[in-house]
Amino acid sequence: MEEELAKRDRAWIEINLENLENNIKEIKSVIPETCKIMAIVKANAYGHGMIEIAKKLNEIGIEDFAVATLSEGIKLRKNNIKGNILILGYTDINEIENIIKYDLIQTIVDYEYAKKIEQMKLEKKLKVHIKINTGMNRIGESYKNIENLINIYKMKNTEILGTFSHLCVSDSTKKDDIEFTNMQINNFFKCIDKIKSLGYDTGKIHIQASYGILNYTNVNCDFVRPGIIMYGIYNEDEPKIKLNLKPVLTLKARITSIKEIEEQESVSYGRTFIANTNKKIATVSIGYADGFPRNLSNKNVKVMVNGKYAEIIGRICMDQLIIDVSKIEGIHQGDIVTLIGEQKEISAETIANKAETITNELLCRLGDRLGRKVNNNNKKWRKKIGKRRKYIRK
To answer: Would you tell me which of 57, 63, 258, 361 could form a disulfide with 83, CB atoms 3.0–4.6 Å apart?
Structure first.
């Protein structure tokens, strides 16, 4: 039965939790011993599967998490994830009681938001982290508005557990961007020092996301917030410190059809690919509806099948794409094709670059239509089927 189910897989993600544990150890090796990891598991853990990732992190001692939305926080709680869960974004004021109910932590996005919370009749104090805008100008009360910030710390409806900011160009090696990042860091700590000097407790402080960890190691905070590097992936820019990271995610699909075409025949929509010689081609069961970008069409993007590379040709369709397998022997219907893997030619970094985006977006696009198989010890896989959360040992 298990073998038959495996053969039915159309397209899926494989998650290696041992690699996740390796990446956590690597991150810990470059942060102060007193600093803790706040794991970023928003957007379904960057496409990896939020619950399985968070459970593994709980298992290895991570007790602090960050999500983007209330619903993500509730999902973690309903799946018995332990520890602190910070909502990094805005939550509608009418949902504040649910934040308290599920023991979550809300970000104070600005002074006006804080005033609305202060006016509410709450059964107990709302746990919060205060966001200081140091130059990204997205959310957060500006570091320049120290009076507003102090008024937030004076409020009675909140229990302030932390204060943080976000660096917007910490991944860049350009001189101007380095100067801007150092300015953000300096403004943040000046603001923190001022608040503390007036007798207010800022709680735990944090400002470094993935590239803040790698490029600004001299910053000493209570938390770091690794996102993409926790999943074993870099973005385009080379960091100051290169860790021995291992990709957690592999994307796979199957060959569904094999055919021979003649010179001058076209492939897929729009006839954007015309064969310049006789070719053997194969259709693969994945498309842009699964999150594999359509703009990778006709960009010399490689995939791996039977240990060899093949090229995607023609336009990527909603549910399928086509590859040139003319130089690969022994291709059969049902063979597995790897679209994102550890090899450089098919790494998330390479694919994202060809798609003219970043790895974060590429991985977050990977949709719910993809199954997920989880490997926790490199020996046994668990396969999640649909929404029933049924797992099968292979």
So the answer is: 63
Map residue 3 onto helix, strand or coil.
helix
- 9-28 tens-digit pLDDT: 899 999 999 999 999 999 99
Q: Looking at residues 61-69, what average pLDDT do you find?
A: 98
- Residues paired with 132 in a beta bridge: 141
Burial of 218 by CB count in 10 Å (0-12 exposed, 13-18 middle, 19+ buried)? exposed
Distance, CA of 39 to CA of 236 (rounded, Å): 21
Could you give the CA distance from residue 246 to residue 80 in angstroms, rounded to a whole number? 27
Catalytic residues: 42, 269
Distance from chain centroid for Cα 146: 33
- C-beta atoms surrounding 148 within 10 Å: 15
pLDDT, tens digit (0-9, with 9 covering 90-100), for 259-279:
999 999 999 999 999 999 999
**Token pair 């794991």 in the structure block, residue:** 39
**Phi-psi map region of 268: left, alpha, beta (phi>0 left; psi -120 to 50 alpha):** left
Residues 181, 123: Cα–Cα separation, whole Å: 40
Q: At 256, is the secondary structure helix, strand, or coil?
A: strand
Distance CA 25, CA 157 (A): 38
What does the pLDDT read at residue 375?
A: 84
Longest dimension (CA), the chain: 79
Measured torsion, CA atoms of residues 100, 102, 108, 109, in degrees rounded to the nearest 10: -130
Report the length, in residues, of the chain.
394
Q: Please name which of 147, 182, 141 lies closest in space to residue 163, comparing C-alpha atoms.
A: 141
Q: How far apart are CA 151 and CA 144, in angstroms?
A: 14
* Amino acid, res. 59: E
How many CB atoms neighbour CB 302 within 10 A? Answer: 18
Q: Are 290 and 13 in contact (CB under 8 A)?
A: no
